[in-house]
Design goal:
Serine Threonine Protein Phosphatase 5, Tetratricopeptide repeat, 2 domains, Glutamine Phosphoribosylpyrophosphate, subunit 1, domain 1
Length: 300
């Protein structure tokens, strides 16, 4: 009822997984730990394996030793399906003889794909091919694999949830090492929704990059970076981008580009005219530039 991929990037030291299923929040059956690896425990998954993997990993010569230890502690091991990937050894996978058909797995350089109650072996094959042929960061390759498996038929029962997680030391909130952890717990088309959200995330990465470039540049280069940001935002007129239009306007004004600041604020108000009252109140209390307030006719 689940298809997943666990993988590592040995050069960047990224580790992670991607998973989808016709069940609520399928990502609960997978786990990754920075600078170590990732595991998926599915079919009739044993969630005790998730933490146990990282206890066993430092002393294991290979993944088969970990699987042997799992079998020794679990009388129902033949109902399980497990995928293991680690920075210290080759990936391995296991599909128990009592997993529901179609069930199976494949491994390749730095990844393992596995699934049960699937449309057929083409799901796993498509995932492996996509992961191997996709260039880019680990999360991009993981999503490509998940999308390919979904398009190849995925879970025989249908669609409900998906998750993609990549861990890398030093990323995310202090101590979390989370580069990305995107959970779609319940959706009619969760993998497609994940792709949409990743697209928005990609836009934010571009925005942050241009703002960072502007912040560290001399005035001329700063304005050029802001101009590129304005061009990038030009077709992004949904409320989710309001804050970035406001930031762009403020940065322009700080550089003395009053007309460009006015234009950005006009776009901002075009997206949501109700915010004119907010800017007017800010102008009255002195927290919004008087010159821009006059140009925008906020106090008329």
């Amino acid at each position: 009822m689940t298809f997943s991929i666990v993988a590592v990037d040995r050069e960047s030291k990224e580790v992670g997984f991607a998973i989808a299923s016709c069940s609520w929040d399928a990502g609960q059956v997978a786990f990754a730990r920075a600078e170590l690896g990732a595991i998926a425990s599915q079919a009739k998954g044993n969630l005790d394996f998730l933490g146990r993997y990282f206890e066993l990993l430092p002393g294991a010569d290979n993944g088969e030793e970990v699987l042997k230890a799992f079998r020794a502690q679990d009388d129902e091991f033949e109902t399980r399906q497990v995928g293991l990937a680690a920075l210290t050894h080759a990936p391995v996978a296991f599909t128990g003889s009592q997993c529901s058909p179609w069930a199976g797995h494949t491994t390749g350089l730095d990844y393992a794909c596995q699934g049960d109650i699937l449309a057929g072996p083409q799901v796993i094959e498509a995932m492996a091919t996509a992961f191997e042929k996709t260039e880019g960061s680990l999360f991009e390759r993981l999503f490509a694999a998940l999308h390919a498996g979904d398009q190849a038929g995925g879970d025989l029962r249908g669609r409900q949830s998906a998750r993609l997680c990549v861990m890398k030391r030093g990323w995310g909130q202090p101590g979390t090492h989370t580069q990305i952890d995107l959970v779609i717990p319940d959706h009619d088309d969760p993998v497609a929704e994940m792709g949409r959200v990743l697209g928005v995330r990609g836009h934010l990465v571009t925005i942050f990059g241009l703002l960072g470039e502007a912040a560290s540049a001399e005035r001329t280069a700063c304005v050029e970076a802001l101009d590129r940001l304005a061009e990038f935002l030009s077709d992004k007129l949904e409320p989710r981008y309001l804050d970035w239009w406001e930031t762009l306007a403020d940065r322009y004004f700080a550089q003395g580009e009053v007309e460009k600041a006015e234009s950005a604020y006009r776009t901002y108000l075009g997206i949501n005219p109700a915010l004119k009252t907010v800017l007017a109140a800010d102008a009255i209390n002195g927290s919004f530039p008087e010159e821009l307030a006059r140009r925008l006719k906020l106090l008329d």
